[in-house]
Design a protein that fits this description.
95 residues; alpha+beta; 3 strands; 24% helix
Length: 95
């Protein structure tokens, strides 16, 4: 068959060795379920494009962070504030 053949999922299940032999020979096989493509089997090392996510994964632009009128803290002050939150600090024990 030519590059880009479609194989139903049932055929993949029943004839896995034959389908994989086609892939090993350089053929790209698209697996379908009820006639709808669900995935591709390609020769290992074949360059693939970026995955097609059904949701947005890129940056969403500028984020408008509201001014909460709190004090401006530097990294050391933030670390000191968070140190020990949610855990046992040095020298303390549970219970």
């Amino acid at each position: 068959m030519s590059d880009g053949a479609e194989v139903p999922l049932r055929e993949l299940n029943q004839q896995t060795s034959r389908v994989l032999a086609r892939v090993a020979a350089g053929e790209t096989v698209t697996i379908t379920k009820d006639g709808v493509p669900i995935g591709d089997i390609v020769v290992r090392g074949t360059p693939m494009g970026p995955p097609g996510y059904p949701f947005r994964t890129g940056p969403m632009g500028e984020v408008d962070i509201p001014d909460l009128s709190g004090p401006v803290l530097d990294d050391d002050e933030i670390e000191a504030t968070l140190r020990g939150m949610g855990g046992v600090t040095a020298g303390e024990t549970d219970g």
